[in-house]
Amino acid sequence: MNADVAVSLSVLLGIVAVSDATRRLLTRALADTGISVYAVELVSTFQLCCCTHELKLLSEVGGIEPRLALTLTYLAAVIHGLTFCGAIGNPSGALEHAYHARLSGGCALRRIACQFAAAAAARAAVPMIWGMGLSGLHMRHKLLGYRCISQIHAPVPKAAAVELACAFAVQTAITHTRSVDEKYRVHAVAAVIATVVYAGGSLTGAVFNPALAFSTQFPCSGNSFLEYCLVYWLGPLLGMITSVLLFDKVVPLLSRKSSLQLPLDTKKTA
After folding, report:
1. N or C: which end of the chain has fewer CB within 10 A?
2. Which residue ranges of the chain lie beneath pLDDT 50?
């Protein structure tokens, strides 16, 4: 492990540790106010975005091996899942919770506002960390003016379809593991996340999270704001909707039709 990777891992651990301490402090301080859930959402999404910025820098500028990048992606997903304390960290996920009445519409919108606020805050905070010059990688990135280039390496419709497919896969994994014990569930979801990053990362970065994309992708040059919206906002939203409708409406409908048709087929055979 080279020095740049070691420093970046230390930065990641520091971000998680500070975020976790802040979450605990705010949860206790705001316990009786009813706004602790929004504070947790804000801090957790900030943690997610800051860590992703650092991982993105390691992968794009640091040139680490793809296997190491995927391993770090998996580990980061596990850590986020274990430390989020009920935060969602994804606007599409908040809308899915509202659709299933696990959240009220107003609560979901407030959570989404917190997610985008945290995404913007992370986008402003991470260059300050890099500006400290903790590693050669950070110093090189500072000299380049923190420049980033679009990760969309496909026509916009295809790129949007990739983000749709990634969001569909992750939402499906989340839906079908809700009854699993949390300590096992986070590993299952993290494995799916690492898989979709491997499959779609070379085409779009496989972000499948509108708030995270707003923080890590929208500042990059190479595509217009509208193109980023279509790929990183519309694609994941449609992916979530497709997964929800498929397993809430289509699959149960087909199952009912099969169960109704089975007795008819039995009578015909008799």
Report:
1. C
2. 267
